[in-house]
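Figure 2 data, in text form.
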Amino acid sequence: MSLSKENTGASAATPRPHFPPRQLWYDQPAGSDWNRALPLGSGRLGAMVFGNVANERVQMNEDSVWSGGPRDRNNPDTLRLLPELRRLINEGKLARAHGLAADALAGTPDIMRYYEPLADLLLFFEHGSDPVFTAESMSKAATIITATEEESGSAYRRWLDLGTAVAGVEYTRGGITWQRQYLASAVDRVIAIRIAAGQPGAVSFRLRMDRGEPDNYAVRHLDTIQAFDRCGLLLRGQTAGAEGIRFAAAAAVSAVGGTVTTVGDTVIVAGADSVFIAAAGATSFREADPAQSALDAVRAALKKQWEALAADHIAEYRAYFDRAALRLGSEEQTAEQAAVPTDKRIERVRDGGDDPGLFALYFDYGRYLLIASSRPGSLAANAQGIWNQDFRPAWGAKYTININVEMNYWPAEVCNLADCHAPLFDLLERMLAPGARTAQVMYGCRGFVAHHNTDLWADTCPTDRNLGASYWLMGGAWLALHLWDHFAFSGGVAFLGRVYPTLREASLFFLDYLVPDAEGRLVVFPSSSPENVYRLPNGESGTLSAGTAMDSAILDLLFRRTRQSAEILGIDSEFQQEVEAARRRLPLPTVGSHGRILEWLEEYEEVDPGHRHMSHLFALFPGDQISPLETPVLGAAARKTLDFRLSQGGGHTGWSRAWIINFWARLLDGEKCRENLRALLAKSTLPNLFDDHPPFQIDGNFGGAAAIAEMLLQSHHTARDEEGREFPLLHLLPAVPADWKEGAVRGLRARGGFEVDFEWNDGKIAWAEVRSARGGVCYLRLQDGKTSKEEIKPGGANRL
């Protein structure tokens, strides 16, 4: 196979496949079930839309509403007690070692801050002959009752259009058709709602705002609500803790026809033809006066009005979303599958039915969620992206960095959303100063370090006293690898120059911290393999150890990328030699007597052989040290490792299953990818397509989207030309299952700054186009194993 060498740019001669509209849709309201509500987001602001008919709830988040303030939690006794802790582990006295670690390694205090909700918009509707409003009908409890068929009205449809990031509800009641549209505008910094009816003067409702469960007075007493401008409400408060974040949420109404008045903490709309609601939120994390910021955004949005605001929102959003697209199956099959409500499509897969189009929808949903929860200027996507209704959410909805937040960003580069990666880089930059203090105070080392969690304040100390997770030191190192990934996909040397100091500081810590084992290998000590447990021959079980497979895989990559970065930049030659010398002393991936990759440096008994973490396969994905093509022995061992872990019940959480699909894609096994994609949808996906740990965690959505991209295109390998120079190797359709006989993809990105479109029929590439804004050389590989060298001019394209 060879592509033509004609550089065409966006050639009209290149076939352009049809990509159908992408919608989640339902024939019932969400009722009280948050896992059926539909998410909207603008990076900073998020909303969950329930679509209830009589009593609507729009639950809002703002990304910086976190409990408490910054703290120095570094344990002053860690450095003094490290030698004793290492001695106990070396002697196999794990119980005593764990007891000491729980005190000597724990942060002081041992808990980080957590993410909180902003506010609820509560709308209480009249529908023609409905009874007038009553105190009972307007209670918050009434807004979250389970919707019945009668409440739904007839011809009910609730939807989220991924192509425009607009949600909607339409139904008929009392002979009148009612419509609502909802969006989250990054342009105008508001959640916007439009309400209309098929009969003039039919729109009447009351609007209120609330925050906190009805009986949570410890939270609610901090909040105040007042009317403003005779059409709006302003809620002000402070999050939990003496140093809690000050926040404000504002909502106001503009009506065509009818009247708008305020009474107490209620906005009353009567007899309107249509209504526009704008809501905003702000906090003291960014604003000196959060209330004024929220009021300014709402007032400006009302002045702009719905039509202009919606048009600007859609144009801005599509600049992200339209960069990529995927169709699986024929256009006719896709249309037939899309005619079924989304929750019923999930049920059909759960019952054993086929629906490749649902996988394509899931892929686009993952891209949508990343755009909605991580934008330039926003905070990074946390454990729940941006969407959370709980004051004490699962795992604090923090940034768990022993895989979960990293997984959030796996789709960013390959799915053409590189700018959505920026908030993660901002978080990492804010972690440098606290991470340097943690390195110095707790470990006596240079550089910077972070453990398995961080929060709004970029805290780098251990959190909780979870022995299997808390005292793991690799979080900062793993995050730093995302900087290289961004460079690898873009080729931007200026960016590499800006971020090289972070790679250097991450490496510097481990140059100081690593210790030689009995064989002279350099190991992280103490360490753990998140969040697993092993058993010694003496019967003691534990988590802390001297080195793990994951440690070595992360450090091999970190040291390589640091050295390569310095080489490209032409700097730091002595440091290059130092990190390379240390890299060569790291333990290599090892195959045990059972033929599987060892998780620890010794062949210990696994207490939980079906554990959700697959840390010892980091070298397969997202690393590149294990490959069925380049390291076939290790590739076979990785396959055996996966088979064993799954046979013991592994993959029982959503994010774990998503990681497994990426493993199978790297092992070039499309059938296993399909099998595990089906399991992800059937066992770990909620009705609104959110990932289910359980409970909801967004990492599985992002990991699943990245896995589908990995099935379609891989670029982590290189090929050498006749002069021995290395160039990116782009492998098209490396791991598609046999029943994905036809499809098309647009806008996937590959390392080296390349972008790829292609279509396939009967499992074979029908046409392909490779573009490059910078220009460059790459090699293309198809399913038959043949490769071709492609030279592309800046701004040009080669096509098959």
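Caption note: The two ends are 8 Å apart (CA to CA).
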